Amino acid sequence: MNKYVEKLYAIAGKETRLIIGLMSGTSLDGLDVALCRITGYGKETALELLQFDTTPYTDEFRNRIREVFAKREVDQQLLTGLHAVVGRTHGGLVNEMLAAWGVPNHEVDLLASHGQTVYHAPQSLTGNLEYPNSTLQIGDGDHVAVTTGIITVSDFRQKHVAAGGEGAPLAAYGDHLLFTDGLETRILLNIGGIANFTCLPAGNIGMPCFATDVGPGNTLMDQYMQAVMGQAMDKDAAIASAGVVNRPLLDTLLSHDFFALPFPKTTGPELFNLQYLADAQHKAGTVGLSKHDVMATLCAFSASAIVQAVNRVMEPHRQVKVYISGGGLHNPLLVRFIKEGLPGVSVLSFDELGLVPDAKEAALFALLANETVAGDAIHVNGIMNSPAVCMGKISFPE
Ligand SMILES: Nc1ncnc2c1ncn2[C@@H]1O[C@H](COP(=O)(O)OP(=O)(O)OP(=O)(O)O)[C@@H](O)[C@H]1O
Ligand SMILES: CC(=O)N[C@H]1[C@@H]2OC[C@@H](O2)[C@@H](O)[C@@H]1O[C@H](C)C(=O)O
């Protein structure tokens, strides 16, 4: 028997596994690395976050990814090269992180690698029914496995698409297994580049669990700051806080058909980009708006899309608690707008549920790998319009 098949079999039979989850999202800010101790599987899963850190990308690496990111036309030679380079870079960053934490690579059972989404193409975006929903993540798992010496599970989204989903949001599976509560209906809102949430109804309210993207999180604000202000982000909303929300522009930004689509749905910077903003400014007659007012309006746009989506969930059930994770939690104006838009609703940090908010997505990929190796598709049954599947491809280091 191949020694890694034997090793994998042994790992699958363990009571407790040490699994690293990696996430590099649509913000392109860096690689999130979460070292998790996972006990059990399915509804009996317990996840303990042992270490977490984000390694910021260098400008050079980020710019190389940007060359192919969310673009319809790209240099195929660059894209092909990046598939390997992203895998090797992520593997190298894991090696550095493990060394800093004093954890030998051979003690880690599995590595769960999301890779880097470079294009997300649900039919709702393309309008082309001859092609299924499709999505592409680069950073090949073989490169990660060979670089780290750790058995790697990667490319999670393809199975979701193959089984009828849109390839996202996958957080639903971990949210469902770890955070469902018998008494409290919860909305787990992650504000990354794109904002998405998982709705976890309390046991007896007869509503399905589902996860959906809701619109831009930080991506439009980041893109504007980078293109117009030469800064990576609007740190602590310093710029947006000095501006005034422009109502005609906000209404135009919110008028896209995407927002009227039923849940669940997915999106990305393929739609929410600076062209989207330019078109809206043109339509609303606000081309000359000050930079501060544009930023204030973009912040209100992300918040309003979230508020509208939460309100839609709440129509039949008034009692929900919203728990926020992701980088948007650090934007005080965005959080204020969301709270003001949801009077009477408890809007809390994800900390309250016992997991570091910035680590949530990376940790949930570790859980997905755990389920693929030790679990069963049946455990993730019951998520609306999300197939019951175990996801990811397995790469051996040799
Ligand atoms: N102090 C801060 N002030 C304002 N915004 C912040 C702050 N810290 C982080 N952010 C925002 O959070 C973003 C990073 O969020 P996060 O790491 O959750 O995104 P991601 O994982 O790449 O996205 P996705 O969930 O879409 O895959 C930054 O690009 C920035 O816009
Ligand atoms: C295609 C893709 O990479 N989608 C991401 C993106 O970033 C946020 C949102 O859009 C979410 O749907 C998804 O990531 C998270 C981790 C998910 O699948 O749950």
Automatic annotation (TrEMBL):
CDD domains referenced in this protein's UniProt entry, alphabetically: ASKHA_NBD_ANMK (cd24050)
Top-level taxonomic group: Bacteria
InterPro entries, per the entry: Anhydro_N_Ac-Mur_kinase (IPR005338), ATPase_NBD (IPR043129)
Listed GO MF terms: ATP binding; kinase activity; phosphotransferase activity, alcohol group as acceptor
E.C. no: 2.7.1.170
HAMAP family: AnhMurNAc_kinase
Protein family: Belongs to the anhydro-N-acetylmuramic acid kinase family.
Listed name of the protein: Anhydro-N-acetylmuramic acid kinase
